[in-house]
Specification:
Blueprint lengths: L15 E6 L3 H10 L5 E7 L3 H10 L4 E3 L2 H5 L6 E4 L6 H10 L3 E4 L9 H11 L4 E3 L7 H11 L7 E9 L21 H5 L9 H5 L10 H18 L6 E7 L12 E8 L3 E8 L6 E8 L2 E5 L3 E6 L5 E4 L6 H14 L7 H20 L3 E4 L4 E2 L3
Parallel strand pairs: 1-2, 1-4, 2-3, 4-5, 5-6, 7-10
Antiparallel strand pairs: 7-11, 8-9, 8-15, 9-10, 11-12, 12-13, 13-14, 15-16
Helix pairs in contact: 4-5, 5-11, 9-11
Length: 381
């Protein structure tokens, strides 16, 4: 019996039994969006921290709970799994879920390292599973509208520069609360560390793990992955040919290893570059993507887009104030039934994470990284 055969064939009126792995703040928020769909029943939750499990059970009373996600995956009746663990657990958890015959919705970035991506793609394809990566812009109506109206029609002319930036993201400056200064008895620190080398309990590394490169890729994989995915979506190219980066821990010397300020530049095969600029200092805030062409420029963020034609009148379209992660969740649920590829398919998620990883590798190695876009391999020096 193959892993894929464990899942039921779902009809239009069948309920979808969902498990959630990693039910911290983000995990519970995305779980609440799944619960807006009346077809979804939450059957089980898993987390290494008892407090998070308690909160999740208030949200999904009657669900089974586990401290070891592998026990959750043994429930053959589960159709799909939401994964919202820290980044260093994404690959192992997703591969295990796919091999257990579950469809998977996994938060971005898909991977913590560039090597993990092809392994997850293979697991999804071999097991014939739907795997959606949480890059919700892929399902955002105004992103789709702007792409159709301005990119596909060629209104921008030749695009040579795709600028992206994310300034002042305070989530990367979070301080662990007093309740975590001593390790809670119902928090499994060893399980949290998982594949990462051992270190004694550190409340900051647990609570603000995004600031440490052992657990994720800092602002580059947390934030740039969203924006470079928009670039890939609009431009139709997903694999850069080179990467350079510069930055450092300039202002917040609190033990973090991920830079608080960084610039990344990627080059793509069709004669254009994509850049990312990020800093945590409070002097500037905001986040957006801008496509610069010979006939004008298109500026877009999560709330609106602006078209600035060369020598013409600017146009602004408001998107409305709502979380289109809901659209992304519903796209995934539709694909669980139809077996179609979702908007943020695993291969798309791998390539956007891969582009971000190349930026981080260039930063860490302090050199230009040349990349073979066909074999998707870093070229030797």
């Amino acid at each position: 019996m193959t892993a894929a055969s464990y899942s039921r064939v779902l009809g239009a009126n069948d309920r979808i039994l969902l498990g959630a792995i990693g039910v911290g703040d983000r995990g519970r928020h995305v779980l609440s969006l799944f619960q807006k769909n009346q077809a979804v029943q939450v059957g089980a939750v898993a987390d290494i921290y008892g407090v998070s499990i308690d909160h999740a059970l208030q949200q999904a009373p009657g669900a089974k709970s586990f401290t070891d996600y592998r026990k959750l995956l043994e429930i053959k009746e589960l159709d799909a799994v939401l994964i919202a663990t820290p980044d260093h657990w994404h690959a192992r958890t997703a591969i295990d879920a796919l091999n257990a015959g579950k469809d998977v919705y996994v938060e971005k970035p898909l991977t913590r390292t560039i090597e993990e991506g092809p392994q997850i793609v293979k697991a999804a394809r071999v097991n014939e599973r739907v795997c959606q990566v949480g890059m919700q812009q892929r399902s955002g109506p105004h992103y789709l509208r702007a792409k159709k109206e301005y990119i596909e029609t060629g209104k921008l002319g030749k695009i040579t520069l795709c600028r992206t930036w994310w300034h002042g993201n305070t989530y990367h400056l979070r301080k662990a609360p007093a309740s975590l200064q001593q390790k809670p008895s119902n928090l499994d620190w060893a399980q949290f560390l998982g594949p990462v080398r051992w270190r004694d309990w550190d409340p900051q590394q647990y609570y603000n793990w995004r600031a440490y490169l052992d657990f994720g890729g800092g602002q580059v994989t947390d934030l740039f992955t969203h924006w470079i995915d928009v670039v890939h979506m609009f431009m139709g190219k997903e694999v850069p040919t080179s990467a350079v980066a510069s930055g450092g821990v300039y202002a917040y010397k609190d033990g973090r290893t991920a830079p608080d300020t960084i610039n990344v530049l990627l080059e793509y095969p069709d004669d254009y570059t994509a850049t990312f600029e990020a800093t945590l200092v409070p002097g500037i805030t905001g986040a957006a993507v801008e496509f610069c062409g010979t006939k004008g420029r298109l500026w877009i963020d999560r709330g609106r887009y602006e078209w600035h034609p060369l020598g013409g009148q600017a146009e602004t379209v408001q998107a409305g104030n709502y979380d289109f992660t809901l659209d992304h969740v519903n796209n995934f649920l539709d694909c669980v039934r139809t077996r179609q590829r979702p908007n943020g398919d695993v291969l798309i998620g791998h390539r956007s994470a891969q582009a971000s990883h190349l930026g981080n590798i260039a930063y860490e190695q302090k050199r230009r990284i040349d990349f073979d876009p066909v074999r998707e391999e870093i070229l030797p020096l």
